[in-house]
Amino acid sequence: MLEKVRKTIKEKYENFKGKIKTFKEDIILWIKKSFSKIKLSYIFYALPSLISGILIGEIWLFSSRGGENQTSRYDGQFWFSDIRVVCLGVIGFALQLFFISQKEKLNYIGKIICYIVPLFAFIISIGVWVLIWATYGGDEQWRDVRSEIITGFTGLVAAVGVLATVSVNYKNHEENRISQAENVEKQLEEQRKLREQQYVTEQERRDGETIKDLNERLHEILKNRHDRDDDVRASSYFQLAGLYKDWGLLGENSAIIEAQRKVQQKNILKLIFGTAPHENAETKKYVQKNSAQFQSSFLPKKVKEHVKRSFLEITTLNSVIADIFPNIYDKDKESFEPFDLQYANLSGLTFSEVFFPQRSNLSNAHLTGAILQQTNFEGVSLSNVNLKGANLESANLCGANLDRAIFKDANLKDADLQGAHLWYAVFHNAILRGAIFEEASLQYTDFECAKLQDANLYKAIALTSQQLAQADGIESIEIRRDLAGLGHGEEDQDLKNLIQEALEIQKQKKNI
Fold it and tell me: Which residue of 88, 148, 246, 413 lies most exposed, with the fewest beta carbons within 10 A?
């Protein structure tokens, strides 16, 4: 039993000892962290606390002893002989250093204690100490002025307290004023947010009604779109064009409309132009067999839609194009967003001088027989597009993606294809007189029977002599860089050699 008690006492002692050790380590760590932020400049700020602490200690000792038997102490011996005076100064110095190192965390009152109070204490202690030495001339004189000195010292301390109190009150008043201003501002901000939310809610309601109205208009137009009367069907194109433009006007009103605008406009364009025909074997066979009746209005509907448009339809759609698409001379043409006409049936239509914004997409579209004179396709995607018999005279196709495009029998006279991508493009019997192919990518491009008189192929990429040998008029191909149409740049020696090789190939074929 006694052994158990001893063991318990020992365990408690060890536990207590461990806690003391941990507490000691925590205190040391806290001191290290607190004073680790102390800079050399802080010592200068803390010196008044050291000096005022020592002076106040000396004054306190001098006053408490009444000046008796202090002659030897103040007549030549070291002032700091009393260890309590030195400790008081050191404590004030250490506290000042600690407060300065924590100045970021101090509130206004803490900063007053940290800076103003030590400064006033320093000034007061200097003043009192000078007063003591000025009035000290012996015990009798000291007894007469001691009470006055203490009274003056007390008054000065009270003055510091009054100043600190006034400063604190002023600060509290300022904080209250700022707090009230912040509360007012906060209330105004909450009211503003509430009004904005109410506006957004109301706007969303109106947007919902607008979308509903536009969709109802679309349903009404679709009824006319499939009417038997040609005039009614033609009017539906103009109605769709008006609906397309209305969506464009509403596009920036809200996020809800913006989310639907592009989708709706894309769908409207599909309804206006229809999708590109699929030339299956059955359709081709029927057209070849009935070529004499090709213009007949009695062709089956399926074949008629995919092969030929009526004059009224083409005329109407051309008016719609002029209404919807920007012109190259329009000042605000750059403000238009890219058009999405993938798989669209644009055959036989007129897009002359139309400006297609960069990143517009006409991939897989049908433009057979389309009139595209001076049309701007710069930076537009035209991959797999069908341009059979299209008129692209003076068209701008710079940087366009024309991979696998079909230009059979097309007119590209003076067209600009600088930097265009033309992999596997087909130019069978196409007119390419004066066309510019500078730095165009022509890998596997087919120039069979193409008219390349005066065409510019300076620095064309992946061009071979076999490709050139298929074309006509290659002897007049321009081998210099086009400088404002003058063609006075340096010669492309590689192109020159390719032309010579192509001419040799053509000569060999003729001999055979």
Answer: 148
